[in-house]
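Q&A log
Question type: sequence-to-structure
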Amino acid sequence: MTAQRWKVAAIVAVWVALVAGWFLSLRGSGTSVGEAAQELVDRARGAWWAFAAYLVVAVVRPLVLFPATLVTIAAGMLFGPWWGTLAAVIGANLSALAAYSVARSLRSATAGHADDERTVRAWVGRLRDNTFEAVLLMRLVFLPYDAVNYGCGLLRVERTPFLAATALGTLPGTVAFVLIGVSVERLDDGVRGVNGTVLLVSVAIVVVSIVAARLLRRRAPAAVVE
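Response status: OK
Response body:
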């Protein structure tokens, strides 16, 4: 086995261990994901280290498949609307970079497979040639956050336009979920704990984001949308 394959095997082994350890710990304690998130919020609330701890959780989150929406809502609960939005934006981009970097490092394991099909090869070429526009569209229509991150890493798209499009495209959703976090008392209360007005505003932001994506899609080069 080459050194590169040993590196890939080590990364996969650590990743599997992280995911398995996280889910086994939840199962062993009888705690749901929402309850675990609420426990983290309770411990961090009012602490001087809360902001830094939040960013650490945001970086680790995609590696253990923790829901991005819960982390974003937690930012609103911990820091309020303004600082919460700042924390969530920084955390979202750090988590995107973490997932992207892991997937990019694993690219060698998929070399020679994804590019075999002509259709896939053409689509990958369009994504690489128009990374900013393509990623921005995917963010605005709320495609699964981590799937986009890992996919772009595996396809080795350019890092700078990927991160720029992520920062811009996730902003509407980030604001929407931070506002929900500001209005709730507990993460494990679910939708019933959300203030009705805030929920309507958040839904409106999501709708505006999707409409903006449709308008952008019409204006984007054919290479992005075909």
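Response note: The two ends are 40 Å apart (CA to CA).
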